Amino acid sequence: MKSLRVTLLLLLCWCGGVAPQAHAWTLTQVKHIAAGCTASPCAVTLASTGANHLLVVGLTSNSTTAALGAPPAAACAVSWVHGPNAPNTAAGNADDAYYCLQSNSGITSFSQPVTGTLNTTDICVWEAALSLTAMALDTGAVPAQQASDATCTACAGVPLTLSGNADFIVVMSGGGGGVSNLTGTGFTLDFTTSFGDGFGHGLTTGSLTAPATWTASSGTQAPYAIAFQELPATLHNFTVSSIVP
């Protein structure tokens, strides 16, 4: 009976005190308007979305007046949130972003309002899933930021200060320099536009200070980055009132 008591105590300690392992993000889909957007609203064709996923919509433009309006309410089960430190209108270009932490399922067309001058403007939508745990904007000191790079060919990414949790990071760069690549551990170039802008994403398991470097032919770049983290699962403590010998 003594061994039974020890086993139960060890089990209770494990249940109440051991942190869960990080759960991986999965990029479900990323879509953009290949020919650019010339009139509002801008329609992005999606594969059918899942429920309770992360949705991020991003804008890049060579026009500083282009900006996102409120994204379609039907796609989000909660409220859309404007990305911190957005829009970025540095260096004669523009980036903007909104996000939703709980998508609705079955969305196949994303009709995004855009304001301002729309020439050389593109819209991109990312959908990402996270198993078993909830998600949030990263709780680090700088979860989203914009920057401005002068004429460059290896254009510095946006420095972020993150929580150290598993993160899904969206990066974009509006510019006139002809983006051709994105480098950085865990990062992928998703699309380049016909007018020189770029969209990408990163998957990390810890804090990252310089998310990505954009490769461009020349010209200025106005990059933007925003990061989302997993939230730790809620742990439950159990109490045994008595053990019958």
Write structural notes for this entry:
It is built from one helix and 18 strands. Strands 10, 11, 13, 15, 16 and 18 form a six-stranded antiparallel beta sheet that branches. The chain is globular and about 45 Å long. With 245 residues, it is mostly beta strands. Strand 15 (187-192) and strand 16 form a beta hairpin. The protein has one domain (22-230).
Short description:
This protein has one helix at 2-17; strands at residues 25-32, 42-45, 54-61, 67-68, 81-82, 94-100, 109-112, 114-115, 121-130, 135-137, 144-146, 154-155, 167-175, 179-183, 187-192, 198-204, 213-216, 221-230.
List the defining traits of the structure above.
245 residues, mainly beta, six-stranded antiparallel β-sheet, five-stranded antiparallel β-sheet, 18 strands, 39% strand, disordered N terminus, disordered C terminus
